[in-house]
Amino acid sequence: MGPFAAALAGLAAACEQALDEGLDACIARHAAAARACRAGAAAMGLALWPASGDVTADCVTAIAVPAGLDHEAVRLRMRDRYGVATSPDSGVGNLVRIAHMGPTASGLYPVTGLMALGRALADLGAAVDIGAGIEAALNSVSAADLTPAR
Asked: How many Å apart are CA 33 and CA 12, to the nearest integer?
């Protein structure tokens, strides 16, 4: 199977899962995962990008890397030390992007990404309030239903 055929097969599977869950429930779950991730990042003292939530997508949270640190160093630390992979900044700035889409928009996935980010930033010398961030994210997860239909 070539790359295009594999992409179409993945798209078909994702659409089937969303329809099985119900579009409204799927959209709500992704929005709840985004709220949890963003609440946690903000409570850690990190800046979200873009600053306005009006133009963000509920499948990813982009977080500005604190001054003096490089996003690649943060991403590598998250991956190599904590086993959490994140997306590169795509050339838009010194950012780390935590994805929460499909199956990762459920359970504690958003919290796991935040824990790895907070610890990686602290390891590299940034002042972040990891505990406050995790507490805020957990409170948000607890208040929402992040369980996809099976």
From this structure: 23
The set of residues, in sequence order, having a beta carbon less than 8 Å from that of 38 and lying 6+ positions away, is 48, 53, 56, 61
Condensed to tens digits (0 to 9), the pLDDT of residues 26-63 reads 999 999 999 999 999 999 999 999 878 888 999 999 99
Q: What is the pLDDT of residues 103-121, one digit of tens each?
A: 899 989 999 999 999 999 9
Domain presence at residue 128 = yes
Residue 149 inside a domain? The answer is: no
In a domain, 81, yes or no: yes
Q: What is the pLDDT of residues 10-32, one digit of tens each?
A: 889 989 999 999 999 999 999 99
Backbone φ and ψ of 26, nearest 5°: -65, -45
Helix, strand or coil for residue 92? Answer: coil
Total of domains in the chain: 1
Q: Is residue 44 part of a domain?
A: yes
CA distances from 85 to 62, 75, 79, 97 (A): 14, 7, 5, 10
